[in-house]
Structures are given as structure tokens and as C-alpha cells.
Specification:
The protein has helices spanning about 20-30, 70-80, 95-110, 125-130, 135-145, 160-175; strands at about 10-15, 45-55, 55-65, 85-90, 115-120, 150-155. It is an alpha/beta fold and about 190 residues long. The protein has a six-stranded mixed beta sheet with strand order 2-3-1-4-5-6, sandwiched between helices. It is globular, with a radius of gyration of 16 Å. The two termini are about 15 Å apart. Bound molecules: guanosine-5'-triphosphate (GTP). Guanosine-5'-triphosphate binds next to α1 and α4. Its cofactor is Mg(2+). Belongs to the small GTPase superfamily. Rab family.
Length: about 190
């Protein structure tokens, strides 16, 4: 990946313990370690991945921010210039959806060109036990319609919908006429 251009800056935002790091870990390295004790992100972490869209290469530069409110000022720095934001909430924690709304407002107020993807995390937990669901799916889609966003529910544990989420992000970016210049017009080989 060294030296390759980052076309699309993507930022992950959301409440602490919401599953952002696990989502990136699953997407970039296809792994999830349930045994590993939770470690809160400090500052932010960066990773990149190339995605093919319509025969063209989009490089996603993904910033995983810290959810802890202690690092809020820092997280605000990381969404600057982002073309897409994956705003995460934990499907088993209703407070995390309130926090997601906070980030959506931040983005709407400061980064007009940033597309918002609402990502419900830990879907495996609510599939195992329906009572564990604390964030209603239809409520999230109604809200998404209001703010012109998309909703996707994922599980980093099983991998369900994780690649699909980032593919949506890459497609949304590459197919936006405003970004046509940025997307490398070369074909992906191999
Ligand atoms: N069962 C299940 N657990 C998950 C899933 N995603 C994350 N977790 C767990 O939830 C906890 C928090 O996940 P993280 O990915 O570290 O959360 P985060 O949003 O990056 O947290 P901060 O760095 O503090 O902002 C960890 O113990 C994970 O193992 C999932 O899809 N399923």
C-alpha cells in the first residue's frame, strides 16, 4: 500500500465501545478476536484498502477515531475533509444511537460534502437474543431518510455486511460526479 494515493478519506465516528475498531479490523485484516480484552482507541488509527468500482480503483483511507468523549476534540479534527463517514452505533445500546445523532449533526454543520453511512454494529448479539436489540431498525431507516443517509447493520464477529459496507462507501464516492477527477482511471490488474 506504501506510496499509493488515498482517493477517499473515510472516518469512523461513534460512542466508545461501539465497535469501530472491530469493524476496521474485520474489513482490513478479516479478523475478530473475542478473547482480546477491550482496549479503547486513543487518538485515532489509520488503515487503507483498494477497492474496485466499475473497473476503476478507489483507495479508501480509513480513520478509526476514539469514541471516548475525552477525545472528542481530536475526533473532530479527523473528520475534516472526509468524503464519507461511517457513524457507528451499537445495536445493543440505545445511548449509542443518540451519540450517532450528535456526530451526524457535527458532520452536517461542518462537512457538507461528506456522505453519511449509519452502521449498526454487533448484529450477531441481537440475532442470538432478540431482546438484546435496543435500537429499532425502522427508527434508524426513518432517521436515515431524513438526513439522506444509508443504514447498514453489521457484525464484525461473523463478518456479516462488513465488506458490503465499505463497498457501498467506495461506490458512493466513485459514482459521485463530483469525484470523477479523483478516481484513478486505470484498471485493476490481478
Ligand atoms: N459480539 C460482538 N462483539 C463486538 C462486535 N464488534 C465489537 N465487539 C466488541 O465490542 C467491544 C468494543 O469494540 P471496539 O471495536 O473496540 O469499539 P470501539 O468503537 O473501537 O471503541 P473505542 O475505541 O473506545 O471508541 C469489544 O469488546 C469487541 O470485541 C461484534 O460485531 N459482535
Amino acid at each position: 500500500m506504501a506510496g499509493s494515493r488515498v482517493d477517499c478519506k473515510v472516518v469512523l465516528l461513534g460512542k466508545a465501545y461501539g465497535g469501530k475498531t472491530s469493524l476496521v479490523e474485520r474489513y482490513l485484516h478479516d479478523r475478530f478476536n473475542a478473547e482480546m480484552p477491550y482496549q479503547n482507541t486513543i487518538g485515532a488509527a489509520f488503515g487503507a484498502k483498494r477497492v474496485e468500482v466499475d473497473g476503476k480503483i478507489v483507495t479508501l483511507g480509513i480513520w478509526d477515531t476514539a469514541g471516548s468523549e475525552r477525545y472528542e476534540a481530536m475526533s473532530k479534527i479527523y473528520y475534516r475533509g472526509a468524503k464519507a463517514a461511517v457513524v457507528c452505533y451499537d445495536l445493543t445500546d440505545d445511548g449509542s444511537f443518540e451519540r450517532a445523532k450528535f456526530w451526524v449533526k457535527e458532520l452536517n454543520d461542518n462537512e457538507e460534502a461528506c456522505r453519511v453511512y449509519l452502521c449498526g454494529t454487533k448484529l450477531d448479539l441481537v440475532q442470538e437474543n432478540r431482546k438484546a436489540r435496543k435500537v429499532d431498525y425502522h427508527m434508524t431507516t426513518d432517521y436515515a431518510d431524513e438526513i439522506h443517509a444509508e443504514v447498514i447493520e453489521t457484525s464484525s464477529k461473523t463478518g456479516f455486511n462488513v465488506s458490503e459496507l465499505f463497498e457501498k462507501v467506495a461506490e458512493g464516492f466513485a459514482r459521485d460526479p463530483a469525484n470523477r477527477q479523483t478516481v484513478q482511471s486505470k484498471y485493476l490488474i490481478g
